[in-house]
Amino acid sequence: MAAQDGEQDAAAPPYNVLYIGAGGIVFGNDWVHWNHSQHLERVLGGRLRVVGIVDPSRERFEWVMVQKNVSAARASYADTRHYISVQEAAATLNSAAAESAAAGPVHLIILASPPQFRGSLTPGRDLEAQLVAAFGRGPAIFVEKPVTTGAAEDAYAVARHLSASGNLVGVGYMLRYLRVVQKAKQILRDNQLVVMSITARYITAYARIRKTEWFDKASQGGPIVEQATHFCDLCRYLGGEVVLDSVRATALEHDEPAGELRHLTDAIDESVVPPERRIPRVTAAFWKYNTGAIGTLSHVIALHGITYSNEIDVVADGYQLRLVDLYSVPKLFVRYPHDEAEVEYYYPGDDPFYNELETICKLQDQKAGVAAAHAGNTPEEDDGLRPARILSSFEDATKSYEFSWRIRIESEKKNRD
User: Could you say which of 102, 152, 252, 269 is the most buried, measured as most Cβ atoms within 10 Å of its Cβ?
Assistant: First the structure.
């Protein structure tokens, strides 16, 4: 029986969480729907103890604490401390755990710093290695995507380092955890289908974004690497491995007539970003899979508000599977060989962010020998769609990152020729 939101499983011990980074993905803002801290509050209920937040900004930490101290989860933040570095956090938290069994070790680390500070073994960009050195193999580590902004070879080296460390590691390609995506995988698997084509479309809302660095390719990698990488990942997850040498792409650039964005927030001054580093407005790509199948992706920066428009169309012999609105109200529409009318699959309340965090928390509990209930997010029936393992390893996530970067490189070729 699952615990209710905010209710502690009396038989289970506290669950200590350390956040690395206090940005919007972790604690929210007014231009995105996601907020990892709120999801963990629901997953863990009263077990949750946020033991620290590592972030260079004391001001941001204090803003977070003001919000949490007036929330229903305020008890989970009663002992939260601000740290400037991983090493400072480890010195305090490891010492506390050694002195008092009640303090306990760190169970989960959420690594959500900007990607330019991780995904490498080079000092200054090696947060994963710093965490392993500081906390050992005990904590699970949840890493936000993209895994880096540097070379894929560096990220593969980190993947090997993490594999050898023994830590449970998952990467935030959360769309894999949607039940509609798992249903699509189930249909492909059960019917032994070979995908013929995948067509992905992603139209983002930009008019409330207030991060200038998002509009700077040198800072966060650009829209394909930082954002559309979610769909690059799903294209791999559903279609198989991509032949990287087959990737071709083009882009609508910021300085072309159709590329003007007229509704940037007052916080964004694109003129401070060097022209060669400004992001494209549209990127279109196509490629071949190892099977010979064809994939296409279109990413557009155009919408206002905060809701995205997105769809992935998967075609196999006799079948068409359409995954729609994956960030808001995810649905799967399937046309089967025996009927031209589509069948709709919809799972009310399904939340990929919740699902991925619930999965890593459950697995970490199992690793520690703890039998604990977690607050339920969707009905509990066993339909084979609730993940029982990590769906995105660091190595696999690096493959999606490498694929995303190849699209960006190909789309920029006309500017280099």
Answer: 152
